[in-house]
């Protein structure tokens, strides 16, 4: 049987052992199955060829993977923005942790059985790349981000990964928590660049997984008070169950951003210094802008439409800084330390669990708001 040693997505798609499983078909227990989406907006199980680590690579048995909103988006809409487009079968998943199964030539830092979190964005690491050289590797133009087309994702049984982009999980950090270090890394990158200080009043817009990990991070960083918003009371209740001290504001669809901001300021005892925007929705960004004080900052983690408007003169007359975040760099070790040290408890975020064979059902639950899922994970 031929083994694949490279990440080239075509090597998998063109391999004779690649095929889409028929609905209800039971794969062999050790088959390398994965959840793929395609341009026809289908999500299905596929069987991939066997993988063998090449030099510097590690074969990981993926034990836990979370479904991210972007996985659902690629499935349902076939693209994110103008550059990430689903043009063929593509593997999903980039929030993963697992166990080392086999190491390739020259790999000395990992051995069989080691527990690892998988950093899904692998930059080129070439000295000629300014962004890799200067540590801002999330900007690497040649990054391989597993699960962003055309690169297949980590929602699979066996995944090949470069040794240096795995992170060791201490014994007290589970695979599920290791997988959740990916969205946590997004929030931590935002918190780091937002310059949040002890005692800062903070607003978090949106209580989805990113808003909730931002809430946990802001709490760990000493923000006080923290106000969180959402359109759904159930999400606000969930936020409160995780951080009892958080103050909540339910966003009413009939109110404009200035009126929403008045409600937020009343709950926050004044304007906040920092807003972490975790929806990417234009009206929510406006609400955040009207909620911060003179000299404050609106840090936008959410993503959305290609173009949107800003209340320019309000920003200008109030010296409000706007910042944005694209994925993350250098956050995994920090995320793992915070979880291992007990400063951030990610466990409650996992509300639904599925076996790898049932990954398609997991996608349907993650995509259906009436199911009330926060984070759906697939374990193997
Ligand atoms: N910058 C990055 O690198 C990066 C990385 C990962 C995710 N994201 C983005 O972060 C955002 C949040 O991700 P998520 O997984 O938590 O998404 P999600 O859709 O699960 O959660 C968003 C939450 O915002 C709420 N919401 C929607 N409109 C609102 C409004 N007007 N006011 C208040 N709340 C509102 C929703 O009810 C929901 O609970 C998404 O836009 C996602 O694409 C960005
Ligand atoms: O968590 C990382 C994000 O989901 C990715 O940037 C994705 O949105 C596009 O590749
Ligand atoms: Zn993601
Ligand atoms: Zn690079």
Shape: globular
Helix content: 25-40%
| Rg computed from alpha carbons, rounded to a whole number of angstroms | 21 Å
Q: Which range does the strand content fall in?
A: 25-35%
Overall strand count: 21
Give the CATH class of the largest domain.
Answer: Alpha Beta
Report low-confidence residues grouped into runs of 5 or more.
none
- Give the biggest beta sheet: 7 strands, mixed
Distance between the termini: 24 Å
Count of discrete alpha- or pi-helical segments spanning 4 or more residues: 11
> CATH topology of the largest domain, what is it called?
Quinone Oxidoreductase, Chain A, domain 1
Structural class category: alpha/beta
What CATH architecture label of the largest domain applies? Alpha-Beta Complex
The residue-averaged pLDDT reads 97
Descriptive labels:
binds nicotinamide-adenine-dinucleotide; seven-stranded mixed β-sheet; NAD; NAD(P)-bd_dom_sf; ER; six-stranded parallel β-sheet; binds L-arabinitol; alpha/beta; L-arabinitol 4-dehydrogenase activity; Quinone Oxidoreductase, Chain A, domain 1; 2 domains; Rossmann fold; 11 helices; binds zinc ion; zinc ion binding; about 375 residues; about 25% strand
């Amino acid at each position: 049987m031929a083994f694949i040693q490279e990440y080239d997505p075509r090597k998998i798609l063109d391999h004779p052992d690649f095929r889409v499983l028929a609905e209800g078909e039971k794969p062999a227990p050790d088959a390398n199955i994965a959840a793929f989406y395609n341009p026809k907006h289908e999500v299905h199980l596929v069987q991939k060829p066997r993988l063998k680590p090449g030099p510097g690579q590690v074969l990981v048995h993926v034990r836990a993977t979370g479904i991210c909103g972007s996985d659902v988006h690629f499935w349902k809409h076939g693209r994110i923005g103008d550059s990430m487009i689903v043009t063929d079968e593509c593997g999903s998943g980039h929030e993963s942790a697992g166990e080392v199964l086999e190491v390739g030539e020259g790999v000395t830092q990992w051995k069989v059985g080691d527990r690892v979190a998988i950093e899904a964005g692998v930059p080129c690491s070439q000295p000629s790349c300014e962004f890799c050289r200067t540590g801002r590797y999330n900007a690497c133009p040649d990054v391989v981000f597993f699960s962003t087309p055309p690169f297949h994702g980590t929602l699979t049984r066996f995944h090949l990964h470069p040794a240096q982009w795995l992170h060791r999980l201490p014994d007290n950090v589970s695979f599920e928590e290791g997988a959740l270090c990916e969205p946590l890394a997004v929030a931590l990158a935002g918190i780091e660049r937002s310059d949040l200080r002890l005692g800062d009043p903070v607003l978090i817009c949106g209580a989805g997984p990113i808003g909730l990990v931002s809430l946990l991070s802001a709490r760990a960083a000493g923000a006080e008070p923290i106000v969180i918003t959402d359109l759904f009371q159930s999400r606000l209740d969930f936020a409160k169950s995780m951080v009892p001290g958080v103050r909540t504001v339910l966003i009413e669809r009939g109110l404009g951003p200035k009126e929403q901001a008045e409600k937020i300021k009343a709950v926050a005892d004044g304007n906040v210094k920092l807003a972490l925007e975790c929806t990417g929705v234009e009206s929510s960004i406006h609400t955040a802008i009207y909620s911060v004080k003179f000299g404050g900052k609106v840090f936008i983690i959410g993503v959305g439409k290609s173009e949107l408007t800003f209340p320019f003169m309000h920003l200008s007359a109030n010296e409000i800084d706007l910042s944005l975040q694209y994925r993350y760099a250098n956050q995994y070790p920090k995320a793992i330390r915070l979880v291992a040290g007990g400063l951030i408890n990610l466990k409650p975020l996992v509300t639904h669990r599925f076996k790898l064979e049932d990954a398609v059902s997991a996608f349907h639950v993650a995509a259906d708001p009436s199911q009330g899922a926060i984070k759906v994970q697939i374990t193997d």
